Automatic annotation (TrEMBL), chain A:
Gene Ontology MF terms: ATP binding; ATP hydrolysis activity
Descriptive protein name: ABC transporter ATP-binding protein
Keywords per UniProt: ATP-binding, Nucleotide-binding, Transport
Lineage of the organism: Bacteria, Bacillati, Actinomycetota, Actinomycetes, Propionibacteriales
A matching Pfam family: ABC_tran
InterPro entries assigned to the protein according to its UniProt record, in alphabetical order: AAA+_ATPase, ABC_transporter-like_ATP-bd, ABC_transporter-like_CS, P-loop_NTPase
Keyword tRNA-binding among UniProt keywords: no
Domain ABC transporter residues, every copy: 6-236
Automatic annotation (TrEMBL), chain B:
Membrane spanning stretches: 115-136, 157-182, 202-224, 231-253, 299-318
Name assigned to this protein: ABC transporter permease
Species: Nocardioides marmoriginsengisoli
Keywords, alphabetical: Membrane, Transmembrane, Transmembrane helix
Keyword Chloroplast: no
């Protein structure tokens, strides 16, 4: 049995926009392993949402193959979706109905027991407002209700399309805490997000696409390992320190009152070299490679601003 | 499938706009029934006395006496087709009933007037309800979630179509049935005489109105599923019904009015529709009459054809198009 929960080959989707052909997804090969959280990244308009809609049977590919949880599409769509939950970016509920009634109708349509509704409402902490109309929910509540719907079927795979979009910091934190918990419970998660810090924190592997085609895929640690590390050095005498490090063969860039040493060198080694010539730095810190820098280098696009600082002490 | 239909029936009855439309239909039917009963209420003793007095005054009017004398004189001529003396007295004797302020309740008259009007009103409101039912799924985005929970799209479409058809039929039966029941009870209470076939005509009209309401709700659902919005559906229906009438009246084709939506709807609802067709040019050269007749079968087939086209396109579109 394949250990992939999602597999696509040569996936292609073309839209027509005012008579013009727009290739949204262009020969995409995607492979998501069972377990853990898999990030699905790409600049705006890169084809992420279109791909997700095809994975959920909502859109038909023009070419290519899709296999989800071992079920080959399109014949296997019903069997696959019985084991898949999804939170899509747009609201997905009837605004006039309460959160509970919305979930109840979905559960009844799928033949699920009604106590599942109470369980998932409890799980996403919406029990207290379950009888309130969906229209009156905050954006955070709406997202949590979406997550509750995704969990109704006790899925093996959950697909989240920009789950943190529009949420306040507390909502983003909630979502960030929830996703790893899902993975720990044995659910495979595919997370499409613009917030690369979020992806870096919760994802074990990622796929990066641009203009509908695959750019890079692999484990986050492996991809970041490919990136160049840098070290920031704070010294009183910048000129002497620069000369010392250049003399030792390092590539050095002066950035204001700091030196930035390119390469994978360990900060302690740089500190010792400077100390050997009587220069004692007041700061030596590794500038760790981030998914954002890697993503930028790969795609040439800037995602939404990262909320977390780049530098780790 | 039964499970899905029950879910869709719940969606239909819990949609606030639909509840308001159904209430509006019920209120309008109750109002028209009340108005029909009120406008035909039996005359008071004072009104009868006034009518009698007016009839007596009329009987003594010189002009009427001259007309009666002339009629009696003609009656003695023996010419065939001329009223006899007895008929002349009946014709020219002022009738008190003619001077009453209101006509009595007539179920036959209501069948051609208010009965048709309220049926068309209820059908119109159920068209909006059917369109809203489908439109809400698309505008809220909840259709995606529904398809994620039941990916077999044909079943989803069929369940929704069944729910909207059953709901429209039930609403029409209750509202229009209530309308006719109340008027029939009022007529019985007033001892209004009616021919034996009138109640049968009312029953058949009610049945045809309920069937039309079911088809109209279903058709509106089908079109909205194609357009994915209520506004587009209602615009198309308005353009087809109103614009069609205008275009038909301008086209130089004999008898084309037989194909107008309005005439076929009336042809289906009315007991025996005869309408004047201004597009029939043979009237000008005197080779035919302008009055046309549309049978229930003809009107039913016309409306069924429209419904089948809408259903086919809708079903294909829902199965094939991206959501």
């Amino acid at each position: 049995m394949s250990d992939l929960v999602v597999e696509t080959r040569g996936l292609r989707k073309v839209y027509r926009d005012r008579g013009r052909k727009v290739v949204a997804v262009d020969g995409l090969d995607l492979a998501v392993e069972r377990g853990g959280v898999h990030g699905f990244l790409g600049p705006n308009g890169s084809g992420k949402t279109t791909t997700i809609r095809m994975l959920l049977g909502l859109a038909r590919p023009d070419a290519g193959e899709i296999t989800v949880l071992g079920e080959r599409f399109p014949a296997g769509v019903p069997a696959a979706l019985a084991r898949v939950g999804a939170v899509l970016e747009r609201g997905q509920f009837a605004p006039d109905l309460s959160g509970r009634r919305n979930l109840d109708l979905l559960a009844r349509a799928a033949g699920l027991p009604s106590n599942r509704v109470d369980e998932v409402l409890e799980q996403v902490e919406l029990t207290a407002v379950a009888k309130r109309r969906y229209r009156g929910y905050s954006l955070g509540m709406k997202r949590r209700l979406g997550l509750a719907a995704a969990l109704l079927k006790q899925p093996e795979l959950v697909i989240l399309d920009e789950p943190s979009n529009g949420l306040d910091p507390a909502g983003i934190r909630d979502m960030r805490d929830t996703i790893p918990r899902l993975a720990e419970s044995g659910v495979s998660v595919v997370l499409s997000s613009h917030i690369l810090a979020e992806v870096q924190q919760v994802c074990s592997s990622v796929t990066i696409i641009s203009e509908g085609a695959l750019l890079k895929a692999g484990r986050v640690a492996d991809l970041l390992g490919e990136s160049t590390s840098r070290t920031r050095v704070g010294v009183a005498d910048v000129d002497r320190a620069t000369a010392c490090l250049l003399g030792a063969g390092y590539e050095v860039v002066v950035e204001g009152a700091f030196l930035v040493v390119e390469g994978h060198e360990h900060p302690e080694v740089i500190s010792r070299r400077l100390a050997d010539v009587g220069i004692y730095p007041y700061e030596v810190s590794a500038i760790r490679p981030t998914l954002e820098t890697f993503f930028l280098k790969l795609t040439g696009h800037r995602p939404t601003p990262m909320p977390d600082p780049e530098v780790e002490a | 499938m039964k499970r899905l239909i029950l879910v869709e029936l719940t969606r239909y009855r819990t949609r606030r706009a639909i509840v308001l439309l159904v209430l509006l239909a019920a209120l309008l039917a109750a109002f028209v029934a009340f108005q029909s009963a009120w406008d035909t209420r039996p005359p008071t003793e004072a009104e009868i006395a006034t009518a009698q007095a007016n009839a007596d005054i009329e009987a003594t009017r010189a002009g009427l006496q001259e007309d009666l004398a002339q009629c009696l004189k003609d009656a003695t001529s023996g010419v065939a087709g001329v009223p006899g003396a007895e008929q002349c007295r009946e014709m020219y004797a002022p009738n008190t009933a003619s001077y009453l302020p209101r006509d009595p309740l007539s179920l036959t008259g209501t069948l051609k007037g208010n009965g048709i009007g309220i049926a068309i009103l209820v059908v119109g409101l159920l068209i909006i309800a059917g369109s809203t039912f489908a439109g809400a799924d698309w505008s809220s985005g909840s259709m995606r979630n529904q398809v994620l929970f039941e990916p077999r799209r044909s079943r989803v479409w069929a369940a929704k179509a069944t729910a909207v058809t059953l709901s429209s039929g039930l609403v029409a039966l209750v509202v229009l049935g209530g309308f006719w029941l109340s008027l029939t009870l009022v007529a019985a209470d007033r001892d209004v005489p009616h021919g034996s076939g009138v109640l049968e005509d009312v029953g058949w009209h009610l049945l045809r109105a309920v069937v039309l309401a079911m088809a109209a709700g279903l058709g509106a659902f089908a079109l909205t599923t194609v357009f994915r919005g209520s506004f587009a559906t209602l615009s198309v229906l308005f353009t087809y019904s109103v614009g069609g009438e205008i275009v038909f009246s301008l086209l130089p084709i004999d008898g084309i009015a037989r194909w107008s939506l309005g005439n076929n709807v009336f042809g289906w609802l009315e007991t025996n529709l005869r309408f004047y067709d201004p597009t029939t040019r043979c009237i000008e050269n005197g080779t035919c009459k302008g009055a046309q007749h549309i049978s229930h079968l003809d009107a039913g087939l016309y409306l069924l054809a429209l419904l089948l086209i809408a259903l086919s396109v809708s079903w294909w579109s829902f199965r094939r198009r991206d959501i």
